[in-house]
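Supplementary Methods, section 5.1.

A reviewer requested that the exact input to the structure prediction be made available. We therefore reproduce it here, unchanged from the version used in the analyses.
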Amino acid sequence: MKLSGKISVVVPVYNVGRYVEKTIQSLLQQDYAAFEILLIDDGSTDDSGRICDRYAAKDARVKVTHQKNQGVSIARNVGIQKATGAFVSFVDADDYVSTCYLSSLYAELDERKADAAVQMYANCFPNGKQTRSVAEDVNTLMTGMDFVAFEIVGRRDTSSCGKLFRRDLLLQYGVRFSEHITNLEDMLFLFDYMKHCQRVSYAPTVHYFRLVREDGVTFSAFHPSKLTALQTYDYIIEELEQMGRVDLIPGMIRNKFDLSVFFLLAIGRNDPKLYDKVFRETKALMKEHRECMGKKEHVKYHLITYLPSLYRMAYRLKTHGRVL
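The structure derived from this sequence is encoded token-by-token as follows.
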């Protein structure tokens, strides 16, 4: 099969001087001929911007945009706006890909005449361990709403990376990353795109390697902006209702409840006022949608209500202290 169709790879860059060179090199080594790398330097204060400029000076396929710091969503949206390819793929600036990353995505999209190609990725931990983003071996063609049910409602991979999107669909339906959501913005983007897709190619192939950094966020790093993730659930639930896909709503409500409890664990005693606010909202969610909740949700609710310290301790032991 002769590969054709330019791919625009959008890479948001912010203070990743230790990692971005490996990312760029892995993209430049692609065995797919027609691509461009759009590096969006989002106001980096380290040497990330200079590294990007150095590669752009050496290779015409690399294009750099420097802007003041506005966040990853705006950086990705700028990349979509500047893209000239027929297809768009997103890569984070501290990750890397194999040489056949783009060609394999394009081949799956082309052979299956799909609107999107989805692959799994590997989570790479500092100790050398790797885990796959989705446990199941899935190799199939599904509808966009099948993807929503499997990935989003099923709480599997909701990253925008490791995927190939049609730029014409992005433009036709105005699909962009929300500039007001700072947590689960990828999930919202995927939902907005997939609801317009008739055919989605899904494969268990792994050509994308996601670095799980030691400086990832923990309980102590919780910030109230993370609560915008709950708005993502509200938006999707409302959209599903308007689309008549009420069958998917109970799962999304349970997912929102679980995330609310998770936030209560993360807030803890650090901000009593915020904790009370989120607790009241969680209580209202349980009361309003009691019929959607299973035994697991009821147990969580009673533990977080009556034994929050014990539940918090048990959760931390289970996850070895690693939380959102």
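The CA atoms of residues 220 and 270 lie 9 Å apart. These observations are discussed further in the main text.
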